[in-house]
């Protein structure tokens, strides 16, 4: 009987704590928004053409100019854009936004795993995933800012392409969901306290 009682106490102490529907819904919404941000950022990085100004397309990977027959002439030789420091600047910008996508994917995976495999470490996984999403925000915003500073002489509000705005929205979503994830974890009842009671 003693062994059965001990086993019953162990099962009671290690049972999965129940979450409210509202908390589960918010966590699922955060995961969905992060997934959308990853898709938007991936599209923006792969396309790379972020700015159209003075008959030229400036991108992360290519520089394009419009010829006499209205055909685009694209090249990976960015020095033809005649912008000072464009090679180093674009290398820095595309490295940061590409790394932001990779970090965000790992963060998203941690968020999903924390919800699918609920255990004692779920809160820690959720926090780590949220921190990675915030790190993605910092990398992405640094890449976008580098691009804007580099091409400040060509910059215009109407010159930015749809893929640039995809990256801009993705950066905002990374920030919003990273902060929301950490805040949600802090206001919900810590699971570690449940283990001690």
UniProtKB/TrEMBL annotation:
Membrane-spanning residues: 25-52, 92-114, 126-150, 162-184
Keyword terms: Membrane, Transmembrane, Transmembrane helix
GO molecular function: calcium channel activity; voltage-gated monoatomic ion channel activity
Assigned GO CC terms: membrane
Any one Pfam family match given in the protein's UniProt record, by short name: TMEM37
Keyword Membrane tagged: yes
Cited PANTHER family: VOLTAGE-DEPENDENT CALCIUM CHANNEL GAMMA-LIKE SUBUNIT
Protein name, entry field: Transmembrane protein 37
